[in-house]
Amino acid sequence: MSPRPADVRTRYADLRAAVEHHGHRYYVLDDPEISDAEYDRLFRDLVDLETKHPELQSDDSPTQRVGGAPVDAFAKAVHRTPMLSLGNAFSPQEVEDFVRRVERLIGGVAVYVCELKIDGLAVSLTYRRGKLVRGATRGNGFEGEDVTAELRTIQSVPLTLRGVETGLPDEIEVRGEAYMPKQSFARLNEGLEERGRTYANPRSAAAGSVRQLDPRITARRGLQTFMYAVDPPGPARTQVDVLGFLEALGFRVNPHRREVSGIDEIQAYLEEWRDKRHELDYETDGVVIKVNSLSQQAELGTVARSPRWAIAYKFPPEEAQTEVEDIVVQVGRTGAATPVAWLAPVVVAGSTVRRCTLHNEDEVARKDVRVGDTVVLHKAGDVIPEIVSVVVEKRLKKARPWVMPGNCPACGADLVREEGEVVRRCLNPLCPAQRRERLRHFASRSAMDIEGMGESVIDQLVDRDYVEDPADFFSLTTEQLLTLDGFAERSAEKLLAAVDQRRTVPLPRFINALGIRHVGEHTAFTLAAQFGTLEALAAASEEDLRNTEGIGPIVATHVAAWFATEPARILLDKLARAGVRAEIATGAGGPWSGQTWVLTGSLENMSRPEAEERIRALGGTPSSSVSGKTHTVVAGPGAGSKLDKAKRLGVRVIDEPAFLNELAQAEAPLH
Ligand code: IVH
Predict the structure, then answer these.
(1) Beta-strand relationship, 652-654 and 632-635
(2) In angstroms, what is the span from residue 364 Cα to ligand 1's centroid?
């Protein structure tokens, strides 16, 4: 007997409340009460129940974060009240001037709140009767863009407010900062490097990710939020109350705010965070000092486009001066020759920098960096060291402009600058520097992920001639490893076991590991999804590759050319003989392990091979026939007999938007 509708509704409400509660613990409070696996199970149960009872589901369900097809352009979003900006203070003296001005205007002393200034992009979230109805960017302050679909995908943005029963006004607007954690930034850029389209810092990465016309991309970028303002402010009388109120409503609020009185306590906060900020996993470029009392804020008002009750203290740019000891050319795995500056060690933004890329010869010429020069160094996005400029006054008389060598420092072959390129390349496929880098890449985390096969081990293996190409990793012996620095019986066996474990890897990893120019993690994934096996990819013509969605002509040319070379054929053959192979089922142990999925009818947002690959990547098995054991049927327009059969057998059926949602949810990294 099927359960009574009222029971289903109760069960649904309980389950949904549980998912919302644990999502909030995890994503907003960073303090989960249950394991990731338990959370996944609850989430899955909720999806299942909504599938069986679609009438229960609504847009604000936690299962509905990622939805909606890509759009061509964003709609405009006019702000109810302008989104202001802040006046800046560049020195402690200017902060003191601010405090004096405030106290003169209000005719007495004030209490202040210090908050970290988060380096992301300002966003506005509007809730009507407790439901998120609009998310917008700041734009010019009066009018931004409607990015509701994108901001919904950020897990710490509540779709429904908590505690709404307690008499909230019909409409409230919450403002704050969306940002990209440093780690997500580094990972994102690593993936974009191959295509030469990296972001300069986490702020531009966050802005670029929010302004994706396809919310599925935003969902994968690992964005976060800290909110700091609400209008109307409800029961709050002070900014400290506002932050507490925001927390009670379910928003993520930065924990490092502090109520202070007087300039000394403000200075102490600035002093404390000057260095400590580098330990945070997000970028802060300053401290915002706000008058705490909301009535005093109102009294002080706004001039031009900045409130008189707050100021942004900007930390001095983290720069350091050091000396360029040498400029050496490094040859990468694809032969690209990059000038790198070796520096006298210096601490910038919390860590010691010894070297820094100069990108290419044009860049060296533009900055005119010479060996022996004193240079100003900073870190892009608090992460990547960069030379800002040369201190010309300190230049030694004998310093000569740097000239890019015409030959590869590792093998002596000509360094060739191809038309339209800024980099010079060593085109010798046998170049030892390229070989070393190819080996490093092969073993690296995003490729074969051989644990313990780090740079220094690889260098030693190459120096001793134990390893020439990646296939040689698989025939290493304990005796050989025992000759390396720091290896004993146990560690040698551990490394061999790690190597052995990677004889079978998912196809995208295998393709990435080959080190084909222009093929990074992302492109490898696309190729794997399209071609399904290494053999099919190797057999593909340039024409086939060009016709692949997501593969441009340059990539197509390089991939086809790579597989046609003799060294490539030899390598693939040798790997095969060593028992190294790409597995097709990529997600063993993934969240969809043991589930059989059937796609029927047409898909509008992705190709069928991509859909199948993504199912596999999560551990599921795509199948073409429906049986009682089928987990889910994804039915698009035109679905026929399979859909009928699924209904007859009582198999779960979902449409494409629901499928996209479940994919994105299952693929989203938990952190
Ligand atoms: S208060 C009236 N608090 O800094 C403006 N802003 O120019 C109220 N920001 O656009 C802003 N962290 O994007 C405030 N804790 C914080 C902040 C913060 C970052 C950004 C915000 C604003 C810019 C100020």
Answers:
(1) parallel
(2) 36
